[in-house]
Amino acid sequence: MAMSGTLQRMLILLMLIIGSFTFGFIMHAARTGNFYMEAITIALQSPFHTPRIETNIDNRDHPVSVPDSMFNPRAREDVRTEAPWGAPIVWDGTFQPDRVDRLFEKRKARVALTVFALGRYLDKYLARFLTTAEKHFMVGHNVTYYAFVENASRVPNIEPLAPGRSLAIVEVEKRARWQDISMDRMKMIGDLIESTAARSHDYIFCFDVDQHFTARWGAEALGDTVALIQAWFFDQPPEAFTYERRPESVAYIAPGAGDFYYHAAVFGGRCAGVLNATRGIYAGITRDRDAGVEALWHDESHLNRYFMDHRPSKLLSPEYCWDPKIGMSQAIRLVRLEWAPKEYNALRENED
In which residues is Mn(2+) bound (predicted)? Predict the structure, then answer.
């Protein structure tokens, strides 16, 4: 029986639709394959070519986050407010604190804070660090302070902590050199995330102990991966940055490369992002050690190389960690975290 003209036209149209879908699927697969191979090539060219650690840490219950749209880069014309790749640089005036805080009215952020107070640094700095953190760090959110110490009995009592906030002590073995303390903390932070922090926290921030909070250090800082622009270099050209310049180090950054100089005194983000960062940084440190090389600024040199290869999703301006020795700058309207005076000769138990 002959098909009607209408039925023939319908069959032809159906065949065209199926053919277009098949062609589109093949092209999508080809593009996906090409992208995958490109990603592998880039990874192998980078000294941090260890695979990124894919985890489901943040998939169990997505935490509240602060969208980039809440930052207004045009609010500050006197400073740089965006990275070349579009990440916001957080300055006073580029966000509205009340608006940010309203995002978290129904669910508070769950934040881990790590701080290493080893040797004489514990007695000198830890009490003030924790006391000022209670006044200014993620106020109103659920925070656990993880204090890494060599002797738990010397940890100061700063109770009562605010509701939803707690202090956990992590005892670690004494290191022979302060340089090893600085570098090995990357492994310890990664281990903490995998063993403990990822189960009960959305975000983790890592701080040096020889500094103290002076003003709001709030949820505007939350992001996938967060790096801090070092106070002494925020207004300097890249050629002034003290990157590792020896090619034999994994932390090497060639002249002319790099975007910012990042300060290892503060970094953080979602647990999965910080896990990737600490594992990648420590892999570079380990490769240098195996080759008998030590980067100029130890873990900070490796952190700068890592963030050059894996650009952070958010940058904190130096108001989030300012050195008063610089003096006041017109760019700094508000100091949120301040360096303590450096007393290396008195506090470091070895100099190598």
Answer: 208, 210
